[in-house]
Amino acid sequence: MKGRDLTIDGVVVYESLPDAVPAPGVLVLHELFGLNDDIRRITDRFAGMGYVAIAPDLIDGGRIACVARAMAQLQRGEGSIVDTAERHLQSLAEREDVIDRRVAVVGFCMGGSFALLLGARGTAKAISANYGGFPGDDIARRLCPVVASYGGRDHVFGTHGEKLSRALEGTSTPHDIVTYPDAGHSFMNQVDDHPIANALVGRPLMAVAFDEDASEDSWRRIEAFFAEHL
What we know:
The protein has 230 residues and is of the alpha/beta class. It has eight helices and eight strands; from the N terminus they run E-E-E-H-E-H-H-E-H-E-H-E-H-E-H-H. It has helices at 37-48, 64-76, 80-93, 110-118, 137-140, 160-168, 195-201, 212-229; strands spanning 2-8, 11-17, 23-29, 52-56, 98-108, 126-130, 146-151, 175-180.
């Protein structure tokens, strides 16, 4: 397994390769902090699980203007950042070291919301949306197989898992959606030294904090779900 930063079409992309290829691929979508060492750690973990894993920086290092544009596009359900993520997913699917276009998307917070949008576009075989915003019934009902995780102490996104579950009831879409009652927002990410994260940790609204138990159980579920659907 080895990782490196690349620049592809003007976008910084972290690439981490498994010990053996060809293999299925995973596109990792970051939180609003941009591509950081935590996302590189997560991307390496997917490579260690046997996936060709890439993580593009969709918001130019976390610049405020780019974050604001991303939030606006999430509200609309479409836009240039969504299209950029989709292009990276399609490019991943077409790689010679990726088996039969078998690709998945995993996202965290903002990236989880983008993962849900991409999951309805037809390229991904499976997605993992971690504390991402509910995209609405229409998009939810067009999703590919989805494994999703939420924190019950997160008073912004904590109920979105229930909304997603209700939207998928009666559909043929395989799904595994869990809300961890004792976890808050961003419980799989380790960015406590980030000033935005520190500000949110002090607020009861989202209870931002890494939770090892919830994180490891989510990783177990993601690994099993991707193994089944990729």
